[in-house]
Amino acid sequence: MRGQVELFEPEISGMAAYCLDTTGKRLRPTLVFFSGWQGEGVVSDDLVRAAGVVEMVHLATLVHDDIMDRAEIRRNRRTASREFGPDAAVLLGDALFSQALNVAAQFPTTELCRLVSESTRRVCSGEIMQTLRRRDINITLAEYRRMIDLKTAELFRVSCFIGARLSGAGAGFAQAADRFGHHLGIAYQIYDDLVDFVGEEQRIGKTLGTDLATGKLTLPLMLLLERVPDAERNTIIAALRGGQPLGLAASQQRMQEMGIAAEVVRAIDDELAAATHVLAPHHGQPAVPLLLQLGAMLHAQVSALQVTR
Amino acid sequence: MRGQVELFEPEISGMAAYCLDTTGKRLRPTLVFFSGWQGEGVVSDDLVRAAGVVEMVHLATLVHDDIMDRAEIRRNRRTASREFGPDAAVLLGDALFSQALNVAAQFPTTELCRLVSESTRRVCSGEIMQTLRRRDINITLAEYRRMIDLKTAELFRVSCFIGARLSGAGAGFAQAADRFGHHLGIAYQIYDDLVDFVGEEQRIGKTLGTDLATGKLTLPLMLLLERVPDAERNTIIAALRGGQPLGLAASQQRMQEMGIAAEVVRAIDDELAAATHVLAPHHGQPAVPLLLQLGAMLHAQVSALQVTR
Questions:
Q1: DSSP assignment, residue A218?
Q2: To the nearest whole angstrom, how far is the Cα of A189 from the nearest Cα of chain B?
Q3: Quick check: is B309 in a domain?
Q4: CATH code at position A155
């Protein structure tokens, strides 16, 4: 990705570098590398480039997300929107998208371009749905699932599929890696939505309670609304609609004592189990132990939330 | 493009249709068709799809431009930003970009993806430069040229190149078409910048005088600042910096009486002459008469401005 920076027009390469040189978790490139793993010392240039493509697409979406969320800080640094202004950030995100696709177009066939451009469209569609349904309390569980599938699981899925394809593994494993990525992505997003209610800010390293404040209906919140008495429900709805904010401590306590956090954890574990399950027929693949380890790491993170069962 | 609408996620295909179904001039697809012209009745599917790709990229940039310009109306209709909100419009533009690249990736080779993704990045870079330098009176002529080359001429250029490539014409003609598109694009943007000062609103069909109001330094304005006496210069600079606005009538009169409009017309004509010139060695190509006609049309539009010589 540092090499890519040089290919931007000189007038904006510094801005591109600012966006690409982050301290993110690099989860999606990790998925590409792990799914494409063929053993110690065998890391093809193609795998590196494809991992870069996926991460650049992801970083471009973050640049645009931060404009919409009016976010000023991400990972202890000013967001691009805060640093260069929201107008320049819209265009900068576009330039990052374009460059990601340009790298994809350096491959000998159009497959990577097809996969990545379609996934990008799906990610954006998921985010549009979420944006348009802010503060809408009538979202169904199926709609929530669909939104997180598009906005998060899609890029996890395609990362795993691309890695497996590039490793030369057969269609069977590529399909399994694809399904693994999908389930891991769903699990990860539900985990992220739960953390926003029951995490500890210091441990997690970001501001919590933002979904309720910004009117984003997520699984924990949907379950909470379903279960609390009417009066309390009305208070939460008012908070969701931008009225009197609800303290994080209050919602955190309710999530725990009503068993909602435990139910959300079960939903995450179900996805992780499904992710593990699809890899079962492919235990001979060198990629599989690495992918399973990622699932186990997420499981450990969930456990660390100390949800009351 | 109507067919493409069906391929978006059903939840957002109506929004995509809204953006794609415009009454624009369709200049860029015309360039693809004209450059790729092989004679009556020979219009390949590839040419149609490539023209669609270029227009979708252009429409995506308009969706984002209208967010930045806080534009409410474009072509007698609400902008996407006004219709769906700026946040959804950011993502919708992204989805249009992605789908354009996805169509490009359906071609047998990666060439179209490479060309279009690189051009898109360059267009965005040009727009970033322009955005960051709003209200900056120290822009040089070379910088202005560079910005309009990237933000406008780039997509004209690549449209012509793609058309010529798809027609199977040799590298010599593809290169000439490329240069033709570049010069036509520069001429078109300078014309557009001039119209903003000396056009008649009713004839042109859009609000004029917006570049000065939004602090966008263009060739006519740069020349005006160079030539007027100090006191007048300070008034214009104050207007550019967002102070007391300058009446369109006043600047229009000065453009004419100081011979600035005439000089800008000469700059446009020089580009049109260069565009014609590069096609001279290729008069045997069926595309050439059509391309020359486009140049002549722009020349006629410029003449219709009735600039005092």
A1: -
A2: 20
A3: no
A4: 1.10.600.10
